[in-house]
Write a structure and sequence with these properties.
heterodimer, A: about 350 residues, alpha/beta, Rossmann fold, 3 domains, six-stranded mixed sheet, four-stranded parallel sheet, 16 helices, about 50% helix, B: about 350 residues, 10 strands, pyridoxal phosphate binding (chain B), pyridoxal phosphate (chain B), L-serine ammonia-lyase (chain B), threonine deaminase activity (chain B)
């Protein structure tokens, strides 16, 4: 582990009364969204960057559509080391701006794959340039496992289950390693993914690493086509229950969580919350995959930057294109109540057109 | 201080690049919204309830429109002591439900004052029952000051200024006491309020406690008609800059903060954010009330439960903030949908026509 004060902070663990009521057991939230850079990534990437800075690395290069890149940029700034982040075209402007605010140089390419190839090439050519992987490195897992050591301090008894989201599996690796270290080896993990970014689920089914041909989920920050080999290995050794939810459920969970806990998270995080909102834990209990008497559940609120209110609205729109008319009518209804809105008057007329 | 593990947690202190850019100095956020029960109240009320429980209190009674009551209910549940919370009728249903979820009995009064009277009457009748004040008790300030002790650990150097919101002044008391204990006596505090809930500002101006005849601000959780006497006294001893913003200013920052920091706060908290969003920092620097070279700033994100997206919309409507902004947003959404490849339905065609109507 890197020496001296880490870049991440000890995050609060608090009970959610809403989710506890739904789940029928105490549900704790590990608030990784309160980290600097708004996601758990700073734990692993902070540790990685600090270790490499101690080895006299002079520049960092990273490929990321969001959170890993931001964590790398932040860590680089803390270390006084320059960083280049290659980002795909799909990266939200707000996230690119955040990276630049941390002093990183941001270069855009078409796809994430192109970004990864260019970044790795660059690191190969220059010996003092270090490529910062988003999830697949022991130093990253070492950083992530600190989440569990904190939980051990913060909880009075062993949790009944831990729910987390899986993109590349970096967090999964860190959490399993952490559970082993604190003597919580038997605590089952419910590993959540969205359909269309379900690389772990596919790999577990095939019992070997599977590469998804394409990421089709809107939860882009879960979009690793292949999980880390270590993630598959550990998931086969530890009690891991792999579950997949659809995009709509993940996005709906984001909306509910915002009103109930007043925190805005990405759909990637919504996937974990959907485990309770969609009563998956109850289903797993009925199926005998989880004990009926669960001591408690911990949900890792991974956080994430690629979300704003406008983005949430757009995602809801995108997902309800089948119910397009219904959503538009609801929008019109909401605006009709505002008396000074000329636009609403036109919408009201249009509403007549779709017969509500 | 109560013995054993407190009910509050150590909250993160993180830099906000977004607010730092606007303020021209490093802005730290003390994330009290991440506390159990969603606000800083658990610090002071947690301390108060634990001490009273140790002294043998058999029931807690509180009067609150939100955060103090919820903190009391939460503490009571952990201490396995029954609690009754008197809430004014204006309290949002979801907050009442949260209190009940913690096992508290909830009773209604017309106004917060009436609730306070009923609560205190109840306590008079039973000697081992305790009234839990929302602010204005040394045990509560003692709990709140832990915020500063944490900041001292978390920061490499003394902050240039601390920004916080003032309702009854409980947090202000705790923070000033905490600053003294940390050897940060010379750190100025910008004490934010909204017009219509500016009891502290009025008192400072008069040099004595002033009671507002009525709370007219929509920031109801800042709505203490009279601040604690101790708050006025300490504010006269410490460097406190009292500032007041309008309700629209307090609300305008909320969606901006939500998008930048992914946290939804009440208008009471929005008042503190307005110090940056309304350019007050720069004004104070120009007026030489704050140094131009500010080391850093800490904003206490007090949090709060009385907010949802629907509530935010309702507040904006009430303040007539919605017209232009809503029109603009709707046009943008319609445009985005129009560009979306899987566009379908006759309605969209009508929307396109409507877009023409609002000139986009």
């Amino acid at each position: 582990m890197a020496s001296s004060k880490p870049f991440h902070v000890v995050t609060p663990l608090r009970v959610s009364s809403h989710l506890s009521k739904l789940a029928g057991t105490k549900v704790y939230l590990k608030l990784e969204n309160t980290q600097p850079t708004c996601s758990f990534k700073i734990r692993g990437i902070g540790n990685f960057c600090k270790s490499w800075a101690e080895k006299r690395c002079q520049q960092f290069v990273c490929a990321s559509a969001g959170n890993a890149g931001l964590a790398a940029a932040y860590s680089a700034k803390q270390l006084g080391i320059p960083a280049i982040i290659f980002v795909p075209q799909s990266t939200p402007a707000i996230t690119m701006e955040r990276m630049e605010d941390e002093g990183a140089t941001v270069c855009m390419q078409q796809t994430l794959e192109e970004c990864q190839n260019i970044a790795k090439e660059m690191a190969k050519r220059c010996s003092n340039l270090t490529y910062v992987p988003p999830f697949d490195d022991p130093l990253i897992w070492e950083g992530h496992k600190t989440m569990v050591t904190e939980m051990k301090e913060q909880m009075e008894s062993t949790p009944g289950a831990i729910i987390l989201s899986v993109g590349g599996g970096g967090m999964l690796c860190g959490v399993i390693q952490g559970l082993r270290e604190v003597g919580w080896d038997k605590v089952p993990i419910i590993a959540m993914e969205t359909c269309g970014a379900h690389s772990l689920n596919a790999s577990l089914e095939e019992k070997k690493l599977v590469t998804l041909p394409k990421i089709t989920s809107i939860a882009t920050t879960l979009g690793a086509a292949t999980v880390a080999e270590e993630a598959l290995k550990l998931a086969q050794e530890h009690p891991v229950i792999s579950q997949v939810v659809n995009d709509s459920d993940a996005v709906a969970a984001v909306g509910r969580f915002l009103d109930e806990e007043r925190m805005l998270v990405e759909p990637a995080c919504g996937a974990s919350l959907a485990a309770i909102y969609c009563e998956l834990t109850k289903t797993l209990q009925k199926d005998g995959k989880l004990p009926n008497e669960l001591e408690s559940i911990v949900i890792i609120v991974c956080g994430g930057n690629n979300i704003t209110m406008e983005e949430l609205d757009c995602l809801k729109e995108q997902l309800s294109s089948d119910n397009g008319d219904l959503v538009e009518c609801e929008l019109a209804m909401a605006t009709w109540n505002n008396p000074c809105n000329i636009f609403a008057a036109s919408l009201q007329k249009s509403m007549g057109a779709c017969a509500h | 201080m109560a013995s054993s593990k407190p009910f509050h947690v150590v909250t993160p202190l993180r830099v906000s690049p977004h607010l730092s850019k606007l303020a021209g100095t490093k802005v730290y956020l003390k994330l009290e919204n991440s506390q159990p029960t969603g606000s800083f109240k658990i610090r002071g009320i947690g301390n108060f309830c634990k001490v009273m429980a140790e002294k043998g209190s058999k029931e807690f009674v509180s009067a609150s429109a939100g955060n103090a009551g919820l903190a009391t209910a939460y503490c009571a549940k952990l201490l396995e002591i029954p609690a009754t919370i008197y809430v004014p009728q204006s309290t949002p249903a979801f907050t009442v439900e949260r209190m009940k979820d913690e096992g508290a009995t909830v009773c209604f009064g017309q106004t917060l004052d009436e609730c306070k009277n009923k609560a205190q009457e109840m306590v008079k009748k039973n000697s081992d029952w305790t009234f839990v004040p929302p602010f204005g008790d040394p045990l509560i300030s003692e709990g709140h000051k832990t915020m500063v002790a944490e900041m001292k650990e978390q920061m490499e150097s003394k902050p240039g200024v601390i920004v916080l919101s003032v309702g009854g002044g409980g947090m202000l008391c705790g923070v000033i006491q905490g600053l003294r204990e940390a050897g940060w006596d010379d750190v100025p505090i910008i004490a934010m309020e909204t017009w219509g809930a500016h009891s502290f500002h009025a008192s400072l101006k008069q040099g004595e406690l002033v009671t507002l005849p009525k709370i007219t601000s929509i920031a109801t959780t800042l709505g203490a008609a009279t601040v604690a006497e101790e708050a006025l006294k300490l504010a006269q001893e410490h460097c406190v800059i009292s500032q007041v913003v309008t309700d629209p200013e307090a609300v305008a920052g909320i969606p901006r903060f939500l998008d930048a920091e992914k946290i939804l706060v009440e208008p009471a908290c929005g008042a503190s954010l307005a110090v940056i969003y309304s350019g007050l920092i720069k004004t104070l620097q120009k007026e030489c009330k704050l140094p131009r070279d500010l080391e850093s700033m800490v904003i206490i994100v007090c949090g709060g439960n009385n907010i949802t997206l629907e509530e935010l919309d309702r507040l904006k409507d009430e303040l007539c903030m919605n017209h232009r902004m809503k029109e603009y947003v709707e046009c943008k959404v319609a445009l985005a949908k129009w560009n979306h490849a899987s566009n379908s339905g006759t309605f969209t065609a009508s929307l396109q026509k409507s877009l023409g109507a609002c000139g986009h």
